[in-house]
Design brief:
Pfam families: DUF5790. InterPro entries: DUF5790. By secondary structure, the protein is an all-alpha fold. Helix 1 packs antiparallel against helix 4, helix 3 packs antiparallel against helix 5 and helix 4 packs antiparallel against helix 5. It has one domain. Helices cover 85% and strands 0% of the residues. It has five helices and no strands.
């Protein structure tokens, strides 16, 4: 084998190691950007909307999506170049992080929808209860007016 072929093999091996290191670096960075479990479980707020807004903020994945994309890019490149001797662990971690990220993003969207629905629902309920209270007040006034009319009729007799 020529010296050039040995150098190429050595360079390819070095590049493969660097590519794997890049994938691992981006996977670590993506993992670090994910919310801490306590951040989504324990929130302090004055009301439901405050809890929902705190939860939505806690479910922010920051740059994790970009890191995961970069990890997937380098992994795909390494796989196509057949640069990894054993990449099952990388593939499994990519899959796990991808699924987790999808779940977090979906949960954040659901919380966002709920956070926008709760104030509308409160407004509808406020209107309903105010209308009910107004009807009750009107009924009391009518009953009082009828009672006054009955007293007036008794006094006239």
């Amino acid at each position: 084998m020529s010296q050039s072929a040995l150098d190429d093999d050595e360079l390819f091996g070095e590049a493969a190691s660097e590519m794997r290191a890049d994938v691992e670096k981006h996977l670590d960075a993506a993992r670090e950007e994910l919310p801490e479990p306590a951040a989504i479980w324990e929130v302090e707020a004055e009301n439901t909307l405050g809890v929902l807004n705190a939860l939505r903020g806690a479910l922010d994945v920051g740059d994790a999506e970009q890191h995961l994309r970069d990890a997937r890019k380098w992994y795909t490149m390494g796989q196509r170049a057949d640069a990894f001797e054993d990449a099952d662990d990388l593939e499994a971690e990519l899959e796990t992080l991808s699924e987790t990220m999808e779940d977090i993003v979906a949960a954040r969207e659901q919380v966002g929808e709920l956070a926008s629905t709760v104030p509308q629902l409160r407004g509808l309920l406020d209107d309903l209860h105010e209308a009910e209270a107004a009807e009750a007040d009107d009924a009391e006034e009518e009953a009082a007016d009828e009672g006054d009319e009955d007293e007036d009729e008794e006094t006239e007799e």
